[in-house]
Amino acid sequence: MFASRGAGCTGTRVGSAVRAKSYGFRPGRGCHDAIGAIYCTLNGKKPQRVWVLDADLTAAFDRIDHDRLMAALGTFPARGLVGQWLKAGAVDRGRFAPTEAGTPQGRVISPLLFNVALHGMEEAAGVRYYATGRDAGSAESGSPVLVRYADDFVAMCTSREQAEQVKQRLREWLTPRGLAFHEDKTRIVHAESGFDFLGFSVRRYHGKLLIKPSAAAQRRIRERLSTVRGARAVRHPPRFAGRGHGRPVEHPDAARPQRRSVGRNLGAGPNPRRHEHGGGSAQPGLI
Predict the structure, then answer these.
(1) Partner of 122 for a Cys bridge, out of 61, 105, 127, 174, CB 3.0 to 4.6 A?
(2) How confident is the model at residue 98 (pLDDT cuts 50, 70, 90)?
(3) Among residues of the chain, what percentage have pLDDT more than 70?
(4) Which residues are registered as beta bridge partners of 188?
(5) Which whole-number Å values give the CA distances from 182 to 5, 56, 118, 187, in the listed order?
(6) Closest Cα to residue 64, out of 111, 3, 17?
(7) Considering the chain, what is the average pLDDT of its residues?
(8) What is the pLDDT of residues 29-86, one digit of tens each?
(9) Which burial class, exposed, middle or buried, applies to 143 when counting CB atoms under 10 A from its CB (0-12, 13-18, 19+)?
(10) Dist CA 135 CA 176 (whole Å)
């Protein structure tokens, strides 16, 4: 209840302050909106930004620095309540654990506070937007474009050198906030090599942008379907003919097609369907 109250009032205050390219845990936005933003950037015959920093943060929700987070909240009226909640600790399997850093996952307010903690990431990466004119709100020419969903984000850059610079600038910006790159999951790739983001595989192939479910996402779906099918088989096992018999019970109508076929082969009467369509009547014994 406490977290729900905090999430409601905090969301109305800071929601408008979060940049447009942040899509995780925001009302009216989702994964497909983030993929759509990537599509708009990488699509076309000659897109400007084809080098991608595919980044992931290590244990992001567990390592957020509380002091930095509270400073980001500024003069928010419920700031004291948020601070108490952050320091309240957590009980896991009957054991109390203090929370000196981070926002425990699973709470309603945790994703919102995470968005507050990462506010300003685009400016740190060097993203610049047109403030006025016809292109207001669009990224300036030569500027990288950063799309973020919670702790997963990609930065699309004009060159590999720019991608390296963005990574270094973000590393310096994340460190005082208690965050760091997950080096095993963070890489710089060309759009033609492709990358996975939010369960999708994104890749330019022969001048076209292809977006489809990633191999890992397809594997998870297959495993889920096999589990569902197995559960259905357990709930509805096949019936057998009786005690001691090993053959399944056949449906009463299972033998009817066979009897119909035998009757026609023995010279049954005219076929009404063939007669209706001008095919004439079937001759006895000639089917």
Answers:
(1) 127
(2) confident
(3) 72
(4) 53
(5) 33, 5, 16, 10
(6) 111
(7) 80
(8) 999 999 999 999 999 999 999 999 999 899 888 899 999 999 999 888 889 999 888 8
(9) buried
(10) 34
What are 2-44's pLDDT values in tens digits?
Answer: 344 444 444 444 444 445 689 988 888 999 999 999 999 999 9
Report CA torsion sign: 186, 191, 194, 200: positive
Structure confidence by residue, pLDDT tens digits, 217-231? 999 999 999 888 777
Cβ proximity of 55 and 154 under 8 Å: yes
* Cα 34 to Cα 214: distance, rounded to the nearest angstrom: 15
Contacts of 126 (CB under 8 A, 6+ apart): 143, 144, 165, 166, 169
Residue 255, pLDDT score: 46
Model confidence, pTM: 0.72
Strands 200-205 and 145-149: unpaired
Under 8 Å between Cβ of 86 and 104: no
Tokens at 66, concatenated? 């509380």
Burial class (CB in 10 A: 0-12, 13-18, 19+), 74: exposed
Q: With contact defined as beta carbons under 8 Å apart, do 73 and 112 qualify?
A: no
* Separation CA 207–CA 72 (nearest Å): 42
Tokens 């004439």 sit on residue: 280
Maximal CA-CA distance, the chain: 96
Rounded-to-integer distance, Cα 35 and Cα 21, Å:
11
